[in-house]
Specification:
about 180 residues, alpha/beta, Rossmann fold, 6-stranded parallel sheet, two-stranded antiparallel ribbon, 8 strands, globular, binds magnesium ion
Length: about 180
């Protein structure tokens, strides 16, 4: 399975949560698969899906899922100790770890080599960290949604991209409809 397969798999269970999605192809794929006003697509914030989602979880009570990538978390490594030390039990970080910087041409990341992001998250102090094969991502995410504990899920998948159109929706429109969804 590649990232887009996982997104197709989990899209049906992303209806009642706020979703902050990683920049580039992940956002384009989620937008194409199942655009929702509760989705906030990163359009210029490399590495910051987890930080923005976590801040949103701290600021209000709705459940927030950040869909992030291995390259993105490696870009913003300060995010894991920040999350670990400021727990928000309405926050789920789903790291789709395909071992590559998918949006820039599938260059390999260290997460696909010797560095385990699940081990790093645990070492940073995150308590509920699960690493799953791609096919088990939906079940792991549903369990995290049903539980009331902050959870970090590392989903290991193959690298690879599908052809997707860019998001033509104006960023202001994405922001405004997301703010409405947050306040609803
Ligand atoms: Mg990646």
């Amino acid at each position: 399975m590649i990232r887009s397969d996982i997104l197709k798999d989990i899209a049906p269970i992303l209806r009642d949560q706020l979703v902050v999605c990683n920049i580039g192809l992940p956002s384009q794929e989620l937008h194409m698969i199942d655009d929702q006003p509760t989705n906030f697509y990163m359009l210029g914030t490399m590495g910051l899906s987890s930080s923005i989602g976590f801040g949103l979880a701290l600021a209000q009570d709705k459940k927030v899922i950040s869909i992030d990538g291995d390259g993105s978390v490696l870009t913003n490594f300060g995010t894991l100790p920040t999350i670990a030390n400021n727990v928000a039990d309405n926050f789920i970080l789903l790291i789709i770890d395909n071992g590559s910087y998918g949006s820039t041409g599938d260059q390999p990341t260290y997460a696909g080599k010797r560095t385990s992001l699940a081990a790093v998250a645990r070492a940073c102090g995150c308590e509920n960290v699960v690493e799953v094969p791609a096919a088990d991502t939906k079940d792991a995410l549903q369990a995290a949604i049903d539980g009331d504990k902050m959870t970090i899920i590392v989903s290991k998948c193959e690298s690879g991209n599908i052809k997707v159109p860019v998001i033509t929706m104006d960023p202001v429109v994405i922001r405004d409809r997301f703010m409405k969804a947050v306040q609803a």
